[in-house]
Amino acid sequence: MGRPARDAFDVATRQRILDAAEQEFSAAGLAGAGLAAIADRAGIRAPSILHHFASKEALYGSTVALAFGRLAEALGGAMAGRGPLGARVEALTRAFEGFLRARPSIALLILRELMNPRGHGRPILMRQIVPILDAVEGYLKRAGVRRGLPVREAMLSVVSNGLLRAATGPLREALWGRGDSGPRLARLLFVKE
User: Fold this and answer.
1) CATH of range 57-190; options 1.10.357, 1.10.10, 1.10.287, 2.130.10
2) What is the reported pTM?
């Protein structure tokens, strides 16, 4: 009987570590984050992290993989929807922006690594991002977006807008104004009406 409780404890501890790591990596990057700071956020001792993850780099990889797995699920759900192209494009954009609103630290983590050409986490991040971009690009092309549109570049414009909006926190409204124009902008880019 003691075993299931220990397994449940390990799963809960692992998730606390991942949540704390997401916050710390977004604040300090892979190079700047320390296991002690992550452990403090998780409410455990630093050596306990190494019981769950072989190294800080392994923890970073798991943190990024988990975040992008969640993003892929959210986007996959939106891509499974039916209806007119404009509504599907808006739903896809809402799914992306909703993911970032729920986890703004991911926006900071992505931007931090993309802006640092020597970022240690950059290769890990790129292995996670590119397959998602490929899937969404294929979906949009099959859906019949505006002819002649450079789909990848248009997607990255929408993604960049969402990342910056999420990362600016309290400055968001002052910079972008009230409301949520991302889905409408995406519709204007992708759909000829």
Assistant:
1) 1.10.357
2) 0.85
